[in-house]
Write a structure and sequence with these properties.
Number of strands: 5
Radius of gyration: 17 Å
Mean pLDDT: 97
Order of helices and strands: EHEHEHHEE
Number of domains: 1
Shape: elongated
CATH superfamily: 6-pyruvoyl tetrahydropterin synthase/QueD
Oligomer: single chain
CATH architecture: 2-Layer Sandwich
Distance between the termini: 22 Å
CATH topology: Tetrahydropterin Synthase, Chain A
Helix content: 25-40%
Strand content: 25-35%
Bound molecules: nickel (II) ion
Low-confidence stretches: none
């Protein structure tokens, strides 16, 4: 019997979508306003969901405090109030699209979880636009 526990978290961050190896014109064509050289910000929301068997002793799949602490250390402390392009080494050579951000977040949380758990991360870049990654 597997159950999924979820934790919601939040961070504010700035980014710019562009490729260094493309011209300004090509970047504007593909990324539009997201290629603003002076960056722009988002209020990112994420939901991290961990699936596993209920531990018969504790009744927990995973103490949600553990998940909360992992998200704080691996996501909030690293991304919150940062410029993703300039301040976060994960994006030094990686365009910080929502797709790439959700994969980085997934990998960071997954590395701290026991391998017996399945993980899914949903990342909202705006209230209406969101991406999902579960390691597939
Ligand atoms: Ni953006």
């Amino acid at each position: 019997m597997k159950v999924t526990i979820s934790r919601r978290a939040h961070f504010n961050a700035a980014h710019r979508l562009y490729r260094k190896d493309w011209s300004i014109e090509k970047n504007d064509e593909v990324f539009g306003l997201c290629n603003n050289p002076n960056f722009h910000g988002h209020n990112y929301e994420l939901i991290a969901s961990v699936t596993g068997e209920i531990d018969q002793e504790t009744g927990y799949v995973l103490d949600v405090k553990i998940l909360k602490d992992i998200i704080k250390a691996e996501v909030e402390d690293v991304f919150d109030h940062k410029n993703l392009n300039l301040d976060v080494p994960d994006f030094k050579d990686l365009n910080p699209t929502a797709e790439n951000i959700v994969v980085i977040i997934y990998n960071r949380i997954k590395a701290k979880l026991d391998s017996k758990f399945e993980l899914e991360v949903i990342l909202y870049e705006t209230p209406r636009n969101f991406v999902t990654y579960s390691g597939k």
